[in-house]
Structures are given as C-alpha cells and as structure tokens.
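does this look right to u?? 5,10-Methenyltetrahydrofolate version
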Amino acid sequence: MQNCEIIDGKLYAAEVLERVKSKIGHLSTVICKTQRATLGLAVILVGTDAASQIYVNNKAKKAKEIGFNSEVYKFPQTATEQEIIECIERLNSDPNVNGILVQLPLPQHINTQKIIDTVNYEKDVDGFSTYNVGLLNSWQDSLEPCTPQGVLILLHEILGTNISGKKAVILGRSRIVGRPMASILIRKGCSVTSLNSNSYNIKDECRTADILISAVGSPSFIKGDWIKKGACVIDVGIVKVNDKLYGDVDFESVRKVAGFLTPVPGGVGPMTVSCLMLNTIKAAYKQYDIKW
Ligand SMILES: Nc1nc(=O)c2c([nH]1)NC[C@@H]1CN(c3ccc(C(=O)N[C@@H](CCC(=O)O)C(=O)O)cc3)C=[N+]21
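got this back:
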C-alpha cells in the first residue's frame, strides 16, 4: 500500500507569516517612521455565534503578534444595517486601518452583500466585495479570498506550481470558498467541476478528481471509496461536535487511498489566517503606493 502524506498546514502557514513579517519590516522603514502611521486590521463581529468568536479572536491575536494594530468591533445580534454601515464608513476613511473584515455569517435581517460592498475594495481583505470578485473573475490583480489563496499555496507545495490540466472537483459553492476556489483553479488551467448537495453521482464525480477540495461542513462524509488513488485531498470543512473538530473528510478511510491529505485541525485553517495577514499587508502597500 502506498503512503499518504499528511500536509502540515501550520508549517506552510508559518512560512507565509514570515514573508508577511519581512514585508511589514520593509514598509515600516519606508513609511511609518516618516508619516507616524501604524498598520491596522479591523474586524467586525455581529452577534454571538460561538465559532465566529473563536475565529475572530484568533485573527486579531495573530495580527497583533506580527505587529498590526487589530481592533474587534462587536455588535449585538439586533444591530441594524445602518449601524454597521456607519462603522465601516469610519474605518474606510481611517488611514491607520488598512484592512477591514466583516465576519460571516451575519444575522438574517442584514443584507450581507450590501454590508460587504460598503467596505472600500482596497481594504476588503476578504476579497468578497462585488468589485474584487469582478477583478478576480476577469483575471486582474485583486485582494483574493483568504481560504482559496491558502489552498492554492498548499497545492503548489504539494504538486508544484504547474497544476494546469489537473482535474479538480470542488464540493460547495459558497462565497468564502467554493466559488472563488473554482475561479482561481480555472485561471490556473485546471479542469474544474463544481458540485453541490443537488449534484448527481457525487461519489463518482469525486473519484475522477486529481485534486478534491471539500468545503461543505458535514463531518466525515467523504469516505475512502470516493477517492482516486494518489489524489490530493484538501479538507476545508470544520465543524465542532462535542468539543472535537471534524473536517468533511473521513480521515482514516481516505488516508488509505489519497496521496496527500490536509488534516483538520492543522490544515487549511492556519493557512486562512496567514493569508488574511498577507492580504492586509498587500492592501497597505497598495494604499501607500509602494511596489510589492
Ligand atoms: N468574513 C469571513 N472571513 C473568513 O475567513 C471566515 C468567516 N468570515 N467566517 C468563518 C470562516 C471560518 N474561518 C476559519 C478561520 C480559521 C480557522 C482555523 O484557524 N482553524 C484551526 C483550528 C481552530 C480551532 O481550534 O477552532 C485549524 O484548522 O487548525 C478555521 C476557520 C474563517 N472564516
């Protein structure tokens, strides 16, 4: 039986973070001393979703660790669109805030796209605004969504930088992962199949994948017999059940067939956080008009 390589996301996330730190160092010497500016990431959190609280705190902690200012703006579940919009507008015009992230999901009564599109697209470090999505899909430079960016870095580490011609199957079509992931892989020359819960023959489709990316949030539902031998399996799902974290992938059965597999936790999650830092420093370079 062949061996499956378990991909250490924390390792590659640390590498990305080192790159971010050196970029911060460079920018600080060029700009901050003379203009007395600081670098900042603002995070907006609405409501009390337990998972969101954890992620938001993780992001703010990491941001501070590497030398960003990071403020979390908390709103109650009952907050109005107008209150959130006013906060975003203040942050848009604050020169010491380079990145703004609105944690999702937002409460039902709030128009998510409207809120996201209030964020100045050059501070939209999630890359979810209509304008950034348009840039991405027309293959222009943009702030790209963090999780797909992190997945691409892992794929490059595993398979090399040329992944053109590979068959990629993506489960899930969310704004955060599925849709931008498909767009990025199409641009890289992959043959991309997008699946959702209504798709026919999901298992057979998955079995055609050289690269299988799952972002469904359904604990352990992808089994070993869904996997092509030697395939690269990227697990983006993360759900907590009875205090234990589960991905979409049934780890033990899939590792017997796959060539490469990202674990949960310790796979894609840490890459997402590092890519958020990368987007924040990229946004700062753009805002200060410094060459990347
Ligand atoms: N506007 C917005 N942007 C996001 O990027 C966004 C969001 N909303 N809403 C929720 C999801 C989820 N998400 C994760 C980030 C880090 C980990 C992460 O660091 N995971 C660790 C474990 C963390 C733990 O112990 O709970 C790991 O997989 O090793 C997981 C999930 C970002 N999201």
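Residues 27 and 277 are 14 Å apart (CA to CA). idk if thats expected tbh
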